[in-house]
Design goal:
Blueprint lengths: L5 E7 L8 E6 L2 E7 L5 E5 L13 E5 L2 E5 L6 E3 L4 E3 L5 H6 L9 E2 L1 E4 L2 E6 L24 E7 L3 H9 L4 H4 L13 E9 L2 E7 L15 E8 L3 E8 L2 E13 L2 E10 L2 H5 L2 H26 L13 H19 L10 E6 L1
Antiparallel strand pairs: 1-11, 2-3, 3-4, 4-9, 5-6, 6-7, 7-8, 10-11, 12-18, 13-14, 13-19, 14-15, 15-16, 16-17, 17-18
Helix pairs in contact: 2-5
Length: 348
């Protein structure tokens, strides 16, 4: 149902202080994200193997410098590597006879950088990462300046292709400060492959994207997409940057979490009221959410769908990338990116 052996966005660094944890659902599985008392992030399957209650409902404790999560039901304690540290109900002789090393909940590899916590979701419980965690092309030390979240009530595929679809912009995002019916123009963009994805190569923003003009004269923008559902827009102007990273993360089969993380060092954006910028981003993602949610009414009838050239080529690439990655992991063959350099044209 979902792609495996990939790094998924899990949480924000700012969400976890030492000794804290939180619950998330990811790929249809409950996940506990935590930070130990030394400041290291960790992730566990959020299920106690004893009676199935969520471990995240329990406390995080410090036992002689070791962080342990206590189950709220019977007090079983688990280390950050998933191993069972204690079962309080055992008597002395029972504790000696019980091999706690055989009791564990799944632990996931995590990586923290640039204010983001990544989780590696493998096919097997103990599989090690086969690829490096994602790294955004940002100045050293860059940290999130704004976070916007939403939930799309759909499968991740519909969320991904809905967000990358260029032809919907003058209809779903029609507002006086962005697009109008009269501002539709023919677009021509160059694309090329990147690692496990593709890029709308750096270019001057379209003339009907007039908000970009306020950023400066020497402007360029690039939009990259990478599996499993990572979209990053890099806008550069006069040596400064505005970067919008969007993680499209499957919660379960019918729900997808959208997390937009914005970075910038452009001085103009320090002047613009953050509330105004947030409102603009929330408006955009809310319009996409409403469109995709409305789409589910028709999809419930299981219609046959179609993709056309050139505006739907990015969607075709997305599905081709998924097939290529699945084949690579199942067969052991070298991953071959199916995306080839191309010039795409559409009206938007």
């Amino acid at each position: 149902m979902f792609l495996r052996d990939l790094w998924y966005f899990g949480a924000l660094s700012s969400e976890l202080k030492p000794g804290q944890h939180l619950h998330r659902e990811l790929l249809g599985q409950p996940i506990l994200f935590g930070r130990d008392h030394q400041g290291r992030a960790y992730a566990l399957k959020d299920i106690c193997p004893h009676r199935g209650i969520l471990l995240s409902e329990g406390e995080v404790q410090n036992h002689d410098g070791e962080t342990q999560v206590e189950c709220p039901y019977h007090g079983w304690r688990f280390r950050t590597d998933g191993s069972c540290a204690a079962i309080p109900s055992l008597t002395g002789d029972q504790a000696e006879a019980m091999d706690l090393s055989k009791i564990k909940t799944r632990a996931f590899p995590v990586h923290e950088d640039q204010g983001l916590i990544w989780i590696y979701c493998a096919e097997g419980d103990d599989a090690e990462p086969v690829i490096d965690p994602p790294v955004l092309d940002l100045p050293e030390g860059a940290q999130p300046r704004m976070i916007v979240r939403d939930i799309f009530n759909c499968h991740v595929d519909h969320a991904v292709i809905g967000l990358m679809d260029p032809a919907h912009i003058p209809y779903i995002h029609r507002q006086w400060w962005w697009r109008t019916a009269k501002s539709v123009k023919e677009k021509e963009k160059e694309f090329g492959p990147v690692e496990r994805g593709f890029s709308m190569l750096p270019h001057t923003p379209s003339s009907n994207s007039f908000l970009y003009k306020f950023l400066g004269k020497d402007r360029s923008t690039e939009i990259r997409f990478q599996l499993p559902g990572l979209r990053t827009e890099y806008v550069k102007a006069d040596g400064k940057h505005f970067t919008g990273f969007t993680a499209v993360t499957p919660t379960n089969e019918n729900s997808t979490a959208i997390t937009i993380v914005v970075y910038w060092n452009h001085p103009l954006l320090n002047i613009v009221p953050k509330g105004l910028l947030r409102k603009g981003i929330e408006t955009f993602v809310g319009q996409d959410r409403d469109a995709v949610n409305a789409q589910q009414v028709g999809l419930a009838y299981d219609p046959k769908l179609m993709l056309i050239h050139d505006s739907d080529v990015q969607a075709k690439w997305y599905f081709a990338l998924k097939r290529a990655w699945t084949k690579h992991r199942e067969s052991g063959e070298t991953f071959k990116n199916p995306v080839k350099p191309a010039t795409l044209r559409w009206r938007s």
